[in-house]
Amino acid sequence: MTATLVLLRHGESEWNAKNLFTGWVDVDLTAKGEDEARRGGALLVENDLLPDVVHTSRQRRAIRTAEISLHACDRHWIDVKRSWRLNERHYGALQGKNKAETLAQYGEEQFMTWRRSYDVPPPPIDRDDEYSQADDPRYAELPPELAPLTECLKDVLDRSLPYWYDSIVPDLKAGKTVLVAAHGNSLRALVKHLDGISDAEISKLNIPTGMPLRYDLDLDTMRPLKTGGVYLDPEAAEKAAAAVAAQGKK
Ligand SMILES: O=C(O)[C@@H](CO)OP(=O)(O)O
Questions:
Q1: How far apart are the first and last CA of the chain?
Q2: Cα–Cα distance between 50 and 44 in angstroms, integer?
Q3: Catalytic residues (predicted)?
Q4: Closest-lying ligand 1 atom to the alpha carbon of residue 248
Q5: Contact assessment for residue 90 and residue 23, using Cβ atoms and an 8 Å cutoff
Q6: Domain 2-245 annotated CATH 3.40.50.1240
Q7: Residue with CA nearest ligand 1 atom 5
Q8: Number of C-alpha atoms within 13 angstroms, CB side, residue 168?
Q9: Ligand 1 atom nearest to CA at 25
Q10: What was the ipTM of the complex prediction?
Q11: Mutate-to-test residue for ligand 1 from 114, 185, 207, highest number of ligand atoms within 8 A of CB
């Protein structure tokens, strides 16, 4: 017996388009991002992969991607669950900074350590920074020790795994086709867990915007039948993932 999981990174955001570190800053989709979300929904129909339940972060770009793609596959009515635990990685003091300028200022090694190392977080954001979420009402219930001021990928994995086990796995075990609409780094954390990717190797994994990634999981072990899952449009996904990897460098 298998369970079906579909991972979907949000479509292109306004800050993806401007090449800015985003993290917990709540930017919207661009028109291209909306198109990507619609195309994602169409791919779900083409592949006979209609979700029964959707899990999203608390961020607009993932919430809207889920809505647009579910609308496109006539599944706008399914149950929705949201959690900050699926949010993008908090990018600390880099939030709002231009990626190309950061690369030029700090050099490639430091830039890539901040972007893709497993356990080195960027410097924490100042609570008074214009891009801090310290006073954001949607996180008001978070105890201070859980509310991040910066995160590395390990931190993201540590805070997303409880949600995986407590909320997503029960839906999968109940036989539901589960859509998770989230972010580049929160999905990298989930994929690291699912595929058992090492701390070193995960630096090479990039998740493209708006491309549904299907995982068939063994119902008992919740491990993928095929490592890496299957992108519904593999060629486009490969090209788009390479573009994410190259961000800041052009
Ligand atoms: O800025 C961010 O929040 C993320 C995703 O857009 O960027 P990166 O791919 O550099 O981790």
A1: 46
A2: 6
A3: 10 (tele-phosphohistidine intermediate), 88 (proton donor/acceptor)
A4: 10
A5: yes
A6: yes
A7: 184
A8: 28
A9: 3
A10: 0.96
A11: 185
